[in-house]
Hints:
The structure is a homohexamer of 134-residue chains. Chain A has 134 residues and is an all-alpha fold. Chain A has helices at residues 9-13, 16-29, 36-41, 45-59, 67-80, 84-96, 101-124. At the C-D interface, helix 3, helix 4, helix 5, helix 6 and helix 7 of C face helix 3, helix 4, helix 5, helix 6 and helix 7 of D.
Amino acid sequence: MATVKLWTDDEAAADPVVARVFADIRATRKSDFVNNFWRGLANHPDLLERTWGQLKAVMTGDSVLGPVVQEMIYIAVSTANSCQYCVHSHTAAARAKGMTDAQHAELMAVIGLAAQTNHLVTAMQLPVDEAFLR
Amino acid sequence: MATVKLWTDDEAAADPVVARVFADIRATRKSDFVNNFWRGLANHPDLLERTWGQLKAVMTGDSVLGPVVQEMIYIAVSTANSCQYCVHSHTAAARAKGMTDAQHAELMAVIGLAAQTNHLVTAMQLPVDEAFLR
Amino acid sequence: MATVKLWTDDEAAADPVVARVFADIRATRKSDFVNNFWRGLANHPDLLERTWGQLKAVMTGDSVLGPVVQEMIYIAVSTANSCQYCVHSHTAAARAKGMTDAQHAELMAVIGLAAQTNHLVTAMQLPVDEAFLR
Amino acid sequence: MATVKLWTDDEAAADPVVARVFADIRATRKSDFVNNFWRGLANHPDLLERTWGQLKAVMTGDSVLGPVVQEMIYIAVSTANSCQYCVHSHTAAARAKGMTDAQHAELMAVIGLAAQTNHLVTAMQLPVDEAFLR
Amino acid sequence: MATVKLWTDDEAAADPVVARVFADIRATRKSDFVNNFWRGLANHPDLLERTWGQLKAVMTGDSVLGPVVQEMIYIAVSTANSCQYCVHSHTAAARAKGMTDAQHAELMAVIGLAAQTNHLVTAMQLPVDEAFLR
Amino acid sequence: MATVKLWTDDEAAADPVVARVFADIRATRKSDFVNNFWRGLANHPDLLERTWGQLKAVMTGDSVLGPVVQEMIYIAVSTANSCQYCVHSHTAAARAKGMTDAQHAELMAVIGLAAQTNHLVTAMQLPVDEAFLR
């Protein structure tokens, strides 16, 4: 179904870079589960390693926003970019990290409102108010 | 510059619906400033009233996310939708409501990361892991 | 400002394909005005000729929708694709062809509503109802 | 499959806001069918009520465009925003309201043409012609 | 599943324009296979003919980029536009024309990087450096 | 004009991470010019460092595509994402690395064609042909 091979654990074990990244994903997340995103990226070990390094730094390191807000921002971008897998995976992640139904409901309200006003603004081609320019 | 007329205060005062909405914007925000978005929407008083009603309910009513997180989600959607005016106006709003430089920096890190993984996922056409489906 | 040269009338006259297309644009539109889109495409005469041929067939040939509805659909797509030049040029074209303020207002209402529900649907990842599948 | 629960009629009946909105959807559309969009939004009764109020006002109220043109604009935006559910549901709605095959064919021709010229314009970064600015 | 009928070979044979285009697709590609894109466009024979003419000119004519690079650019645009069918069909086409795993891996790396920096740039609303303007 | 401060060379010199990255950009590109993208990212030194590390690895390291094809793919994604700064900067970069007018013209033809067929496919909601699934 995917346009690339999804690497099994056995295949991952045979490539030193992929094996190292998969092990770090498991250790960092304290879970044996490695989702399809990483199994697809394994086709390009360098890209896998860079992408995991970046995601680990942003999403699992020190954070002023906290994990739930980070995931909600991730859902917002993924929705606007129409990425189905990403909406599913980050909504699941947000819930696992503690997002409540009330937070999800408000997230959707803001996403919907933003999309509407984004399109209205673009259709009107409004000049930016001086007050908004620093 | 815009594709529609931007209503002046005098023009707004002459239309009962527009006058009422502008007055409510000023009262709700405790500021005399009415930005171009509303001055453009004034060309369609019904749409102006519905849009303001919706924005007032979502962005100024009770909130579990709080005003800064709401604005950061707004920035995330506006960025993915490439809306220049919206990025400017909501970044200004987020700062006015207390967004710190550290929060803005992390917001940008999450937006950039999400965009990257959104595109990688779409290019690989990954099936959603069973674990992510409720 | 553009990433390509915008051809002047003198430069256009010196290339037989560009000269022919510019002449046909003027004859078809009954106007001497050739807008920047065609002056930019002139850098690639074959692409200019194919694109004009396509636009002429769709937008100036027999139409069941009529010129105003065609231009409103063009504005809708251009807005969702965040194309500033296109929003400006097709809003001007729609007005020149007779779009009223009331039609423009309703166009904006539909665009804004569609954008909102598009994003809500994507965020919820809704399965298509059986009733909608033929 | 969805990221939210799709409310059944029994669940909807137990929430006064949801029950009221579902009843109004049925009365307005003169049909017992309530599609998944509303069943998903029911998780956030306030958002459900606001969204239905807005859609009812725009799509079922007085209209200068008429229902078929409104739905075609909806399809155009939904296509550019890559919303699968929305393309399906609004193409079905457009047909139910009388869109002919010839209208659908011309709609697709305009959408395809607009997308092409949107991208060409963005790639060339063309300045807006003075003639298009009011 | 589609919003339009997918024409069978028998149906195609009964329409002179569709029959001619299908025959030219088969002759040009030296293959009996006609994919769903053309079977859907057959509902609008004129659009089918124009679209095939354009694709034939761009993708099968003289090329300075070569077929693999052309298909990789096609994948890049289709990914950013979230077109699932297009990502599948053009990845298959690229591989059939000789794209290696290493090329695909690097293509993904560039797409992911571009998406990330696109979003960062839009979120920062950066002015274009003078050095980039010709 | 930007939503963030653009760091001057003096400001950059005062932060050890930013100073190190700016020095590496200059050494890698063999040019004193540091464009606004990096001056904006400097507000978040960690993000600056990660983003430069990624761009350096992808765009200046070993490549099977070569620098001109890489930049053309970058332009394709930036166009579909409507990023003005990115289209300008990467078109300038592509030309500096040797992209010819003929290559740029064909790039535009492919981008325009892909956008058109992307939208047509989405509007028709075509099922992926079995032949395209591996």
